[in-house]
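Next up, sample data.

:::
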Amino acid sequence: MSGASGPGANLTALRGHNAALVLRLLRDAGEDGISRPELAGRTGLTPQAVSKITARLRAEGLLAEAGQRASTGGKPPTALRLVPDARHAIGLQLDRDEVTAVLVDLAGTSVAARSAPFDFGAPAEEALAAATAEVRALLADAAAGGVVGGTAGGGIAAGAGSGIAAGGGTDVAAGGGIAAGGGTDVAAGAGSGLAAGGGLLGVGVAAPGPLDHGSGVLHRVTGFPQWDGFPLRDALAERLALPVVLDKDTNAAALGLVTSGTAESAAYLHLGTGLGAGLVLGGDVYRGARTDAGEFGHQVIQLDGPPCDCGNNGCLEALCLAAVARGDRTDAARLLGIGATNLVRLLDIDRVLLGGRMVLADPEPYVRGVATMIAEDSARASRPPVSVDVVERGERAVVEGAARLVLAPLFALG
């Protein structure tokens, strides 16, 4: 995984980064926890710096003691562990015909989820109202189930804390929760405080591309040109009174691979109502300068092929979805395999992961078909084939990845 546990830095200006490194190690250690000396050794921070950081994290309710380690001479060190339910994040997936929402804790574990029909082709205000209603219904479900405190204005028991503040690096804000840094693309929302015990960090939204992850603006989504230039992130932040971060659905799934340590070099191929890819290169999600990387479905593979909604002819997406529509999974898998082979050749990746509702409805022919195409090409090139598997978390890969868009900055990821 990119940027392993260290090294840290003992500079005040980087204390947010150091706190994120400590939080990541606490998260990775699980229930067994990790001691302060181990944290210092893994991050390269001084024991004094680690003590200050862990004291702040404990004051925020983000960590607790997990028992004592065996003594190696002297006083046995105390292990510390992350408190997963100290904070939560929402993941929201906007598909062309369905909206899915999930609430996860700091460990990325889903604690509530729901979905409903959704019309991406509806007028913006109508679509936003449907998405907002789903988030509020999710929070109501979670509150009724005792997962978090009561809702207020679409958020979770907004407390006296400062919530997710813009600027300053990922850190623990005095008296107020996690402050997200300038590079996190988390938009500030009014009334989004982090209540002690279950506080809500924000909403990560996964939507079809193309879009601009940095500005939170949609571009000409294939088949839905009316969204071009729409500031979806800010519009949802205003409606929900919560911080919001937006990314492509495939990038959200790729972020899940990064934050779970699944792959250093991989492509996530998503075949659902469209076809796209999320790329993990060098242990990080690769978005490109304009968030245009991974427009996998719009590689032209047949010059005289059928028209695609993007305006070109013979796009992989158009051909693949046509095969799915006529019930020919073998041809759909072959076409997907052609695209995957091109990607493996181009990027020299180690792994291909398949997802999306069309694949998950019957994974075996897709895995077999894609693996066969890659293996045949690898044999011609005298190199070992890469592995092809179904993505972990299946149908939840995108929406849980969307929630991790909010969580990742806390752990110096993404």
